[in-house]
Amino acid sequence: MPDDPQRRFEEDLQLDRSVSNPGREGLAGTAPGELYGRASQGEDVTKPPDGTAPEAQPQWRKDFPIDWPQDQYVARRDFAKFLVLTSGSFAVGQAWIAAKHVLRRNDVEPGRKRIAALAGVAVGSSLEFSYPNEHDRCILVRPRADQLFAYSQLCTHLSCAVIPEMENGVFRCPCHEGFFEMATGRNVAGPPPRPLPRIVLAVEDGEIWATGVDERTV
């Protein structure tokens, strides 16, 4: 059948191209705006931004809703990615602290250093000092007259300063409740992963000397 421009023009005039006519006000593109059912969960239902009831909204808002609940939704994949990045950052931070501590100790060869006079350290007391350099904080304790112990004062977990508890025979880390045995420096409770580094002591002519550092892993 030959193409008749006049016939095609007349047919085009009969097409209802308006979306506002009765029975066609729900159309948008090729699918009715109300084709899909309502969400079964309340938090997934679109809430019009101006607070007007859904049936009173203009047609353009029904066809192009702004779904605030969905905008605030965090996908499981995004949450897992956040956890992985946070855990990775924490692990890198721990490694950096440990590496910095080891490198700083390697900068100075431990030698002999006078800590104090033996008579100046009372039984049941403690004394803070630095060894092998000024940035390495250490602590000396004298639980009994015949006992002297010295260790790095930095907890092996996150480098908080440990506190001696003479009555319990332990050092306690107040940051995360880590505990070390006073007589050995061994980690006995909490998150610390290894013992406190022990400072090797010598008592000569009534003077207490630090002569080395015993780094231990168990």
Which features characterize this protein?
three-stranded antiparallel beta sheet, 23% helix, 12 strands, 218 residues, Rieske Iron-sulfur Protein
Number of strands: 12
Helix content: 10-25%
User: Topology as H/E string?
Assistant: HEEHHHEEEEEEEEEE
Largest sheet, in brief, is:
4 strands, antiparallel
The named CATH superfamily of one domain: Rieske [2Fe-2S] iron-sulphur domain
Q: Briefly, what CATH class of one domain?
A: Mainly Beta
Topology:
Layout (H helix, E strand, L loop, with lengths): L4 H10 L12 E2 L2 E2 L26 H5 L4 H4 L4 H32 L5 E5 L7 E6 L6 E6 L6 E4 L10 E3 L4 E4 L4 E4 L5 E3 L8 E7 L2 E8 L4
Antiparallel strand pairs: 1-2, 3-12, 4-5, 5-6, 7-8, 8-9, 9-10, 11-12
Question: What do these coordinates show?
Answer:
The structure is a single chain. With 218 residues, the protein is an alpha+beta fold. It has a domain at 110-214: Rieske [2Fe-2S] iron-sulphur domain (Rieske Iron-sulfur Protein, 3-layer Sandwich). The protein has 4 helices and 12 strands. The protein has helices at residues 5-14, 59-63, 68-71, 76-107, and strands at 27-28, 31-32, 113-117, 125-130, 137-142, 149-152, 163-165, 170-173, 178-181, 187-189, 198-204, 207-214. The strands form 4 sheets. A 4-stranded antiparallel beta sheet has the order 7-8-9-10, with no helix packed on it. Strands 3-12-11 form a 3-stranded antiparallel beta sheet, with no helix packed on it. The protein has a 3-stranded antiparallel beta sheet with strand order 4-5-6, with no helix packed on it. A hairpin with a 4-residue loop joins β7 and β8. The radius of gyration is 38 Å and the shape is rod-shaped. The model has no long low-confidence stretch (mean pLDDT 78).
